[in-house]
Amino acid sequence: MRFFLLLLVTFSLLTGCNSSAMKATLPTYDHFLIFAHRGASGYAPENTMASFKLANELGADYIEIDLQMTKDGHLVALHDDSVDRTTNGKGKVFLYTLEELKQLDAGSWFNEKFPKRAKVEYEGLTIPTLREIFEEFGHDVNYYIEMKNPEQYKQMEKTLVLLLEEFGFLEENESDGKVIISSFSERSLRIMYALEPSLPLVKLQTSYEVKKSTKRTFNKISKYAVAVGPSYKFVNENYVKNAIETGLQVHPYTVDDPSAIDHLEEWGVTGIFTNYIDIYERNVHFLTECVYSLKPFKNEVVFFLCGFKSSI
Ligand code: G3P
Ligand code: CA
Predict the structure, then answer these.
(1) Range 265-281 average pLDDT
(2) Relative to the CA of 144, which ligand 1 atom is closest?
(3) Whose CA is closest to atom 2 on ligand 1?
(4) What is the pTM of this model?
(5) Which is it for strands 62-69 and 75-77: parallel, antiparallel or unpaired?
(6) 200, part of any domain
């Protein structure tokens, strides 16, 4: 069985497609989606349970989780492939066992870096495993899972599929967008597609890839993915139009500037990744404050400063 699976994956990678498989689809959503980037990471330490819980409380449509893998094969939520930036430890994740990783404090850095948003309960938070996240939220939330650095981790895709299966996310009625899988790695997404074609996949794109994307690029991506995730700063109307015409949704990251939402929505983007789930309210709040503070100036000045520039 294992040998057969390996053959299938190898064949799919070589041919670039899985001809017998039905590609997943995403639902047509009735509103603009908010993907909670690393959880509610503007307000709580990214990729921690506190951040995911807050994102859920604030009404995010999806909780975005970055995945790395430990030395002993556990999937954990962490953005970087090293623990240096967001814990009190040092070194690559793949050099840690889960037990060792669990000794690290993944919350105090946030309190030090953002004293105005610091909370005592963030001290000593641990890096959660994907299993713990599934145990906490079950099927009550939608998950947007990014496979980070999959080339560094042996069988990351297979491990993820097995965990999704164990928690019942691969059953027929759950293959409609409850779990979305993304990656910057085309190779890894193709492996996922060969393993489990019912999972909706998203090809993340670097700014360089966004700038050189044509309809041909989107056609190639649409063979295995249902959406593209571009860096929003390089997205224009034509990019969105071409992607949509190819049958792909567009999910730009990471939009923390409220003034950027309106045109993205107009162009037909499905939703955005943001660190600030309340970005709409921030938009209204920002505009009100901005207009009020510039009252003595001419309308053109107010429009220019409040309409085109904002800060969180
Ligand atoms: O998944 C979209 C976005 O999260 C990709 O960028 O570096 O924040 O994981 P990054
Ligand atoms: Ca991510």
Answers:
(1) 91
(2) 1
(3) 253
(4) 0.86
(5) antiparallel
(6) no
